[in-house]
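Notes continue from the previous slide.

Worked example: a multi-chain complex. Inputs as given:
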Amino acid sequence: MSRATFPGGLIASVASLLLFLSFGLMAAEPDPAAALSDADKQCLGCHGSEGMTKDLPNGAKLSLHIAAPAFAKSVHKAIGCAACHAGIDPSKHPGVQREIKDSREYSIAMTAVCRQCHDEAFKHYEGSKHANLQRQGRNVAPVCTDCHGSHAVTPKTAYKTCVGCHAADMNGHQQWLPNAPLHLEAVSCAACHAPTVQRMVDLRFYDSAAKKWIVETEDNVQFEKLAKSMDADNNGLDARELRDLVRHVNDGEIAGPKTLRGRIELRADIEAHRLAEKSQALRACDNCHRGGAEPFQNVAVSVVASDGRPLRYNAHKEVLSSLLSVETLRTFYAIGGTRTELLDVLLILALIGGLSVPIGHQMMKRIVQSREKASAAAGSPGGSGTGADNKNT
Amino acid sequence: MINAAGFVLMILTGTQIRYVGLIDILEFKTAVNWHNWIGFVLIGNYFIWLLFYLFSDKIKVYHPELSPTEHFRKSFRQMQYYGYGIFRGSPNPHQVSAYDKFNPMQSMMYQVVMMLLVPVVFFTGILLWDVTRFYGLVELFGGVRVIDTVHVLIYIFCVFFIIFHIYMGSLGHTVSAHYKAMFVTGYEEVPGEHAGEKPEGNTPAA
């Protein structure tokens, strides 16, 4: 009897356990859209349906579908649908159809809505090459939504944003820029293409074992606290404190898999909107490859926050030229710009040492010969010199 | 000759590359291009030299003195000569011959330079030439800063060595004798081979 019921009981138990686990797993990843406001949920009740479109007069279709989970994860979740799409009365919607000639014109017109909150970014944008092209009637030139997206707006790295349209131009750099792939990796596009901005070095934690950037999760926010705890004098991390931080992150090992990767970024990311004409982009190497170059005057250590933004903590600019950085900044080095100070001291000593050889040797020669002369004069007055003229090697 | 000029140019362009802003004779990019090209010529030249010495009897010139006692005894005598004897006109304890070109101190120094420092500076130079291409090797040796530090340390030694070397070159039986041998004739004038001949330009020391 027991033999007949036991396997059935076991199967039932396993099935219950699996069911419980699957519910548990489902519960572990709640639907992000659930956190949206009721008003937004109401909008997404219709606009969340895939395939919802509007026929435009030019025959094209404008998608009216909004991916609810992506919107719920976006930075604009907090302000909700109505903040940008004002003037819509849900009780009469869809009522009178708004006339939209084509989707591109609509995107361009909507930039006025972005400006309501992002006026400063807009001012930078207006002086840019992209805005110039728009003014010249080139409506394919990028506006806000082309780089930032429309409903799934999240912080992006400038590099990924630019490459979206300029992938082919990346090869153009190889025509004139030595070690082009390295430069494209270590220098953000705007650092050269927005020549009037202020630059900085961003030292970001990278996990070389997992081959990805270290991202701080929402429930494990500790980078700033950790960096602060290393910064004993509370004035930014010096070379020793930075080494301690790297060691701590690697559980006590300095050469661990979590390393700092340096990149030249903008001090104020918002200035990335100020992209100049190609002819004005920085091309001279000594913008960076020179002692005291501007990008190396400000340094920060960072991780990627859960929303994709960099979480930065200031470091002293001297970390770039410290001998300790041979270990802590293994992959970031700009010839001429971040040279190790101690090696400069050694070079001066080598020069002094090198020059002191002939000077010292010639002095010794004089001393020896004057002594020889003196002793020869004392020993045999009228003696015939030292014979120093017969030297050979 | 190509080698000497090449190394001097490497030091000069290297100094320019490292100290843009302090020295602005060449543009950074030009200096880097010259440094790269001359570097590759020198690497090629090095292997020609290496093959020549490995497969000709001239290799004897580089044979080390295997007895440490003998080596130090000879080195000490050589140091005594440079530090004192040379001023008094004493004969050089080392007599140059075709198969015994270097005195014990030179022999040790040239072995270190040609067998260790020069290959290491070439190797680190190639890695720095394209750190993306050689990413794996660069990482293996501890990262670009380690590679650069080693490259620069050898450069610093070269700066010292070249001043020292040029000065030592003036200590022949005349100031220009060694330079003539190096740049003009290719052969060292060995005293004794021209018995009774007074070396040219031999003037009494002050």
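Summary box: The CA atoms of residues 5 and 38 of chain B lie 10 Å apart. The two ends of chain B are 32 Å apart (CA to CA).
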